[in-house]
Amino acid sequence: MSIKKLSSKELIIRGKWILTMSDQGDIKDGAIHISKGKIKNVSLYSDLKQKLPELEIVGDGSGIVIPGLINAHTHFSEALIPGMGSEMTLFEWGREIVTPVSENLNLETAREGTILKVIEMLHSGVTYVNDMFVHSNPKIMASLGVVDGLNYVGIRGCVSYGAEDCTDGVTSMNSLKVDNILEEHQELESSVSENDFLDFRLGIGTLLGQTDRLTKESIKLCKNNGWKVHTHMLEAREEIVHSVLRWGCRPLQHAQKIGLLDLEVVAAHMIWTNESDFTLLKQSNVSVVHNPIANMILGSGVCPVQRLRKEEVNIGIGTDGAASNDSQNMIESLKITPMLQKIHHLDPSVMSAKDALKMATIEGAKALGISEIVGSIEPGKRADIALFSNTAELAIINDPYQQLVFGTSPRSVSDVWVDGVRLVCCGKITTVDETEQVLKTKYISHKLINDSGLIKKGYSQMFI
Known about the structure:
The protein has helices at about 45-50, 90-100, 105-125, 145-155, 180-190, 210-225, 235-245, 250-255, 275-285, 290-295, 305-310, 330-345, 355-360, 360-365, 400-405, 435-450, and strands at about 10-20, 25-35, 40-45, 55-60, 65, 70-75, 125-130, 155-160, 200, 200-205, 230-235, 265-270, 285-290, 315, 385-390, 415-420, 420-425, 430. It is about 35% helix and about 20% strand. β16 and β17 form a beta hairpin.
């Protein structure tokens, strides 16, 4: 596979609108000066051009520039298995699709699947991805392959191993040894400990998917090392029933009792909340990630997004994995977020396009604890930026927020920078041969799906 080793350049990025997502607001006919991977200045284009006449300019002044989108929850472990089980509930889907695949994941599928899906994310303006790699292959630490994939493309992100060892859990994973799971957490953390682009969180796939011993040891490990947690919570109604039967209380109350809420936690979904849950969320350091498309496909329910925002709970947006969403197009998740709230509340004013864009940028950054470096276009922050330009979708811009959220697609993402490095240039990925990666992963995906028995069961009609 060919790859270009690129470095950041000092330049000016120009747009008809700069949506800073900071207190500075939006700037018409604005520009951004970036140098050495950082944002140096944000101002009117005319001012920056006059001060820095010698610098290269990217953008003709007709597009929209935003902070890179933050995909706050996905699963690269599902990268090679899209398009199956869309008529199943969450528990059925987990047992029938995810479990058999998880047993066959390895370093190659993790690495190549990650590269493939990062390409898709970059085309939709994503510059940071928070991943949970769920596998139950006892022979290999497959989650380490994600680190290789992310490093190869050059995107920023966070890695976690979504461990489960309870044979009667949500996904019915084969039982793995607790010590081996803890060792993989430690190896994964060690692999990114000196990486400026990648963070680590300890993954708890689901509380119901873990034995009490594994959860107890995981919490202990986090407290001893100062680690943060990435998990799922209150995604399906059945989760509450199983929790009450197993522990005598709801999942969030159980999390409090065992000390999980003493940690900094990002929890995907948080759909089936009640008043006691909102009280706990306000009292603890839990952030939430809304995954509207996956929730709709699986019929899981509607996250109370505006209530969570009103209660000042940090909440971002995620695509979720390619097996429950099928797409890693972050623009779709961005668009569906306000639309789902509008139809659920039967109120078009309940959520604006600007609210949604905040969730996908600065509020998502706050949820993941990275708002000091990314999430908005401000001097001193890293130059993680997306330029939308040069398509019919942007020919008419009456309101830049509405046009970007409701009127664009990956077609309009012309350029993307991560740390000042141009990973997308004029719509093309610069660090990976996309065509070559597509051809490579077709073969790998076929083998994985066949080895997992999904072709034999009739879930896949894939042939080579």
